[in-house]
Amino acid sequence: MLDRALGLHPSVALRPEPFGALAYHYDNRRLVFLKHPSMVDLVRTLDDHPDLRSALEAHGIAPELWDTYDRATTSLIESEVVIAR
């Protein structure tokens, strides 16, 4: 997953919340909770980076945490919040 080009699905809106954000998908009407502000920041900027690895590096996320972010991103892909581009 780290080498894949990803982006926020165009039909998803992120609403900031104190805990992170709510992601609402207008096509499938799913509501997904992003429970960490750092994950929200990452998802918002995925389109600005060639792949997930570059996005993690740009956000200063320690390499030992990349597996956690990789799993969270995989979950967001399954929920159609994030898509391959």
The assigned structural class equals alpha+beta
Contiguous low-pLDDT stretches (5 residues minimum) are: none
How many structural domains can be distinguished in the coordinates? 1
Query: What do the pLDDT scores average to?
Result: 96
Order of helices and strands: EEEEHHHE
Continuous helix count = 3
What is the general shape?
globular
Total count of strands: 5
Q: Looking across the biggest beta sheet, what order are the strands in?
A: 2-3-4
What is the subunit arrangement here? single chain
Largest sheet: 3 strands, antiparallel
Which CATH class is shown?
Alpha Beta
Euclidean distance between termini CA atoms: 13 Å
Rg, nearest Å? 12 Å
Tell me the CATH architecture.
Alpha-Beta Complex
| Percentage of residues in DSSP E strands | 25-35%
Residues in helices, as a percent range: 25-40%
Which fold name fills CATH's third level, the topology?
Outer Surface Protein A, domain 3
